[in-house]
Amino acid sequence: MKITYYGHAALGIKVGGKHIIVDPFISANPLAEHIDINELKADYILITHAHGDHVLDVEAIAKRTGAVIVSNAEIAGYYAAKGFQAHPMNHGGSWNFDFGKVKYVNAVHSSSFPDGTYGGNPGGFVIEGEHKNIYIAGDTALSMDMKLIPLRTKLDLAVFPIGDNFTMDVQDAIVASDFVECDKILGYHYDTFGYIKIDHKEAIQVFFDKGKDLMLLEIGDSIEL
Known about the structure:
Number of strands: 14
Order of helices and strands: EEEEHHEHEEEEEHEHEHEE
Number of helices: 6
Largest sheet: 7 strands, mixed
Radius of gyration: 16 Å
Shape: globular
């Protein structure tokens, strides 16, 4: 499983021979200006919630690639009504795709499209594929629901927002890592806007002091599990 960071909360995942894009907000992110969305491969697009900084490039990528859009019922229905392929899910439900198993789990946030359309309840994804398991939390506050995840899935990586203001901060992400029983963390949803700028060295050190590994990838860089 290969995971690439495209800035903000956008990820690329290559697993089971398939390419997945998560929450593509790339073309309007000045920090990701070297990433060309027209070069990205996508068989699936996973969307945690409907905010503009998570769905900006969904239609452009889906139109070019024919990717299946996977999200909650409201978001999937929104794109299906526009003629895109979509797979609806809801909280607690899972589905076996051709790359692995995906479960849609709770997140504590809000969700509406830039045009004001209701975007359903926000969520995160637990992905099991190639004998590796990851949790993409989406935009969320620290939640006791996170404790449910390791009851079903032993994680190899957890992806947490750490920018504060709109989501968890670094300290809450440490607690979240305890809740999901995973000490290998990929941080995201930081630095893009003034509200969510962080001190990278301090964040990494705080995790290190707790015996945990916080990775802050350069945009366009990848890790393999």
